[in-house]
């Protein structure tokens, strides 16, 4: 979430892949939350991931504190789990991918928030899958590989 836009992505029902949605152009908090509520209802969202803009050192700054407040507002308003997820370099990575795809500067500016949202959510989904896998391995003491 930025001062002018909110990049959005949703996962498939199995939580494996992230797909980008249209970016919300921010107007005011009431309208922003109305638009988010529409997305939550339409896609049956059960968890929310918010990009956490940490400093490169990993320390929190002013923007990270704003996102923590925003995450709490989301929890309160929608009654859903909200996860803050490290978004360091997501916009830079999104710009690099879009540049490599040879999109014009104007087009990159239109879709960079969407791509960053996809990268943040995909990172969260991948880490969650790894954590689930480790819990499963740890619970039965063995690992299997079936082909």
Your description of this structure?
With 147 residues, the protein is of the alpha+beta class. It has one domain: 2-Layer Sandwich (Nucleotidyltransferase, domain 5), CATH 3.30.420. It contains 4 helices and 4 strands, in the order E-E-H-E-H-E-H-H. The strands form 2 sheets. Strands 1-2 form a two-stranded antiparallel sheet. A two-stranded parallel sheet has the order 3-4. The longest helix is centred in the C-terminal third of the chain and has 36 residues, at 105-140. It is globular and about 50 Å long. The N and C termini lie far apart (42 Å). The model is unreliable at 142-147 (pLDDT under 50).
Strand order of the largest sheet: 1-2
Query: Which CATH class applies here?
Result: Alpha Beta
Class of secondary structure makeup: alpha+beta
Question: Which band does the percent of strand residues land in?
Answer: 15-25%
Runs in which pLDDT lies below 50 for 5 or more consecutive residues are: 142-147
DSSP strand count: 4
Helix segment tally: 4
**Largest sheet properties:** 2 strands, antiparallel
Report the helical percentage: 40-55%
The CATH homologous superfamily is termed YqgF/RNase H-like domain
Distance between the termini: 42 Å
The CATH topology label is Nucleotidyltransferase, domain 5
Q: What average pLDDT do the residues reach?
A: 86
Total discrete domains: 1
Named CATH architecture: 2-Layer Sandwich
- Rg from alpha-carbon coordinates: 17 Å
Shape: globular
Strand/helix succession: EEHEHEHH
